[in-house]
Every structure is written in C-alpha cells, then in structure tokens.
Amino acid sequence: MPPPTRPPRISTGSRPAAILLLMLSLLAACSPRPEPLAPLRGDAVILAFGDSLTAGTGASADRSFPAVLEQRTGRSVINAGRPGERSAEGLARLPALLDEHRPDLLILTHGGNDLLRRMDIDQTRDNVAEMVRLARSQGVDVLLVAVPAPTLLRLRSEPIYAGIADEFRIPLEEGALAHILGRDALKADPIHPNAAGYRVLAERIHELLVQSGAL
C-alpha cells in the first residue's frame, strides 16, 4: 500500500510583502487625482511663496528656483520667499501679496521652519492648508512643494503635504527637496540647496507644470 500523499505546502514567506503591495495599490487607487491646472498664458504671473527655500538661501538670487523657473517657463515668476518665516507668519503675509500681484498660479513651499522647531504639526498643517484655501478662493491655482521632515535617518517628505494635496486635489511635488538635501553635491548646508540643487527643484516643478496642463 503506497504511503499517503501529503498536501502541497504553501510558502508564506512572501505573503507579508504581497499583502503590503496590495494595500499600497489600494491606497493609491483611492487617493484623489489632482485637478488639471489652467494653462498659463504668455503673460501669466506665478507667485513663488515660502521661506528661505523659496528665497534661495545657499545660492545667488539669480540661481534661486523661482529665477530658474522663470527662465524655463518664459513666464513672470515673483520670488516672495522670506528666510526664517514660520507658517503662521506666512499665512498672515500671503493675502497682501495675492492682492498686489493677482497671480495666476501660486507655488507654495512653506512649513520648513515649523518642522525644524518641532512646532505643533497639526497647526502647521492647518496654516498651510489655509494658504491653499485662501488662494483657491480667489481663483488662483496652487502647486504645493513638500518639505522634508528632519530625521537622523533618510530624509522623507513630511506626510502633511500629501494630505493637503489630496484634500484640495492640487499637484504636489513630493520628493524633490528630500532628494536634493540628501546629497552633498546638491546642498549648501544641511537644510538649503545650492545652485545645482535649486536647478533640480526648478526642473522638477517645471515637469509637474507640464504634466498638470499648465504648460
């Protein structure tokens, strides 16, 4: 009499990884897609608003990302960066700039100083979200740039930016600054790009503008 056959063993070694991939796929499918940006006319005005990352600390003024982006797009890009500014201060400053310049597009890169000072993350999120809401209420499109969270390990973008982008369905440049500040050749100091880094950031924003229909 032949010995009884055993049922085939099912390997479970890859099951956790497969489950994780499935969950990530489902989350990606559930995330709202950003709405297209309005095409930017030749005389359109872009307002780049933020702190030292917008001002261009670490490089000369003509090599800040707004200056490089102006060259790439052929549109007027106003550099409204203020070094050291926190999100609450930025929220107070933005309305006057929107009234003054009447931009077609706001490129928002804010909250980095809050993160460096370990300020309340929910308040930072609310402040940045309110900046988006304010611009949108005036018919201004918004492109959001994520700032990396300070960490001893690999730099990563602070998750609040993805949440804000999903809430308002706006384009998000999520990985450029984390990539730049993780490479010595692209940064002037631990928290600021150099001229080469700002060029990379401008190129990534330009690519996103093209993908989003603005250019």
UniProtKB/TrEMBL annotation:
Instruction: State the SUPFAM superfamilies in the record.
Output: SGNH hydrolase
* Annotated SGNH hydrolase-type esterase domain residues: 48-200
Q: Name any Gene Ontology BP term.
A: lipid metabolic process
Keyword Hydrolase included in the entry's annotation: yes
- PROSITE patterns, per this entry? LIPASE_GDSL_SER (PS01098), PROKAR_LIPOPROTEIN (PS51257)
Q: Which CDD domains match?
A: Lysophospholipase_L1_like (cd01822)
In terms of superkingdom, the source organism counts as Bacteria
Annotated GO molecular function terms are:
phosphatidylcholine lysophospholipase activity
Which InterPro entries does the entry mention?
A: Ester_Hydrolysis_Enzymes, Lipase_GDSL_AS, SGNH_hydro, SGNH_hydro_sf
Keywords (alphabetical) are: Hydrolase
Instruction: Answer yes or no on keyword GTP-binding.
Output: no
Q: What is this protein called?
A: Hydrolase GDSL
Q: What is the lineage of its organism?
A: Bacteria, Pseudomonadati, Pseudomonadota, Gammaproteobacteria, Chromatiales
